[in-house]
Design brief:
This protein is an alpha+beta fold and 176 residues long. It contains four helices and seven strands, in the order αββαββββααβ.
Length: 176
Amino acid sequence: MRNYFILLALLVTIVACKNDTKQQDAAEVAKKEATERADAITFKPFGKEIIANDAIASRSMIAHYKDLKSGDSIPAKVTLKVKEVCQAKGCWMTADLGDGNEVMVKFKDYGFFMPKDIAGQMVIVNGMAYVKEVPVDEQRHYAEDKGATKEEIEKITEPKRTYSFEADGVLLVDTK
């Protein structure tokens, strides 16, 4: 009888180890497939050459912004959904951070511009994230670039704390 228990315990151990190996194999296959899908995405590059991997999600970036004080900055690479682009030249864009927050993205030294028709598309931006107090005249300038009416522009009367980003490189997800 004792031999049966030993044999049963040995059999259970072998089966348990074999299932663990199958779970590890399945996890490795899933990871490989996710990497292949990410590699299949193509990008249109703008500015400095950057790579797509290690970009953080926009929702994760909110926590970093909330910790920053006006004048602080941190290096970052973030995946964002474009909300608006400057319709004059493509010299700035706003993007969705989630939970009603947005970020104003400008391009380092005006070294490059973005296409004006990319609202709703995904981008990966690389550069410096910072918080800025935007003066009234600058807010009015952006409103004018967006095509706001004179009445909408005149309603801007106070400085505003904004999440900002100076991008040195951008990857636009190629939808074609």
